[in-house]
Write a structure and sequence with these properties.
single chain
């Protein structure tokens, strides 16, 4: 393994995705989320094609044996993207980032429901802890639904749609787990960008607008950066085990706090910081447990007669 390189690629992807989110946040002040989804997806395609060409996989990397699986992954992934983008338009960047950390929590739940993965007491404890953290982040916003202040109700809606994005993202990851059994990573990345671009176009009847030049440039840059970030992310997981690089996802909170404070004048609240800390801790527990289980499975396989 090339652990140091993998970590650098992972941190690079995390940084790029936070900057991309900031650009999307700016862009969604001027365009609806569906239009932002199109920009983010469509302008990532040239980057992905260039990556395939550089690897010598342009002729074969996009081929698929499971088009229906890509379709359903695309549906859930696009819904997740659209909901997250809607959340970015309504909530501070650090809060969207914190609620997004619930995705691994829901992956554990959905893997047990749809992939028949066993979830023991330790991971149930981590899931419960993570959900408590999410509720701590969201509670001040959810309480605003009962108030008369329209601004507070908008923030509450932002928290709900962002949580919906985390749930859809977890479902998309369940489909990806199924796809990886028959599909290569390049095909998964490519066909998601194609599917989400088409689905983004389907939102034209719901009110696309001509954005100002600065917003259009921000959205194009978000798409290009999204493609680069995806390549960095894929490379990091190819160079080292997921359990090694996955915890570095949580560095995005630091970057989100800095960008939110210095660019958008967003000051983090105490409940958001406490809740985010719990969710991060729960996520790291799940990653650690997955690593331990992976080691146990490897040990049992190595000890099986015929594998020695």
């Amino acid at each position: 393994m090339h652990t140091a390189q993998a970590i650098l690629f992972k941190l690079g992807s995390v940084t790029i995705f936070v900057v991309m989110s900031a650009l999307i946040k700016f862009g969604t002040q001027h365009v609806p989320p569906g239009q932002a989804v199109f920009f983010r997806s469509f302008f990532a395609i040239p980057i992905i094609l260039g990556w395939l060409a550089a690897r010598g996989d342009l002729a074969t990397g996009w081929r698929t044996r499971d088009p229906l699986g890509h379709f359903w992954r695309g549906i859930m992934g696009t819904m997740a993207m659209g909901l997250f983008f809607a959340g970015l338009a309504l909530l501070p960047l650090p809060e969207v980032t914190a609620i997004g950390y619930a995705t691994p929590i829901f992956i554990t739940v959905f893997a047990a429901m749809f992939l028949n993965e066993r979830v023991r007491a330790f991971r149930l404890f981590a899931v419960g802890l993570g959900l408590i953290g999410v509720m701590i982040v969201m509670w001040p916003r959810l309480g605003s639904f009962s108030g008369a202040d329209t601004g507070d109700a908008v923030l509450a809606l932002g928290a709900v749609v962002t949580l919906g994005g985390a749930i859809c993202a977890a479902m998309a990851q369940v489909y990806i787990r199924k796809l990886t059994k028959s599909e290569n990573t390049a095909a998964i990345v490519f066909w998601f960008s194609v599917t989400s671009s088409i689905l983004g176009l389907c939102t034209i009847p719901f009110g696309w607008v001509v954005p100002p030049m600065n917003a259009a440039l921000a959205l194009v840059a978000a798409g290009l950066l999204g493609g680069v970030g995806q390549i960095f992310l894929t490379t990091s997981y190819r160079l080292a085990d997921a359990a090694v690089v996955a915890p570095f996802d949580y560095a995005s909170m630091l970057f989100a706090l800095l960008i939110g404070y210095f660019i958008f004048d967003e000051v983090p609240t105490v409940p958001m910081l406490i809740g985010a800390g719990l969710v991060i801790f729960a996520g790291i527990l799940i990653i650690w447990r997955e690593r331990q289980l992976g080691k146990q499975r490897t040990s049992r396989k190595a000890a099986t007669p015929g594998n020695v």
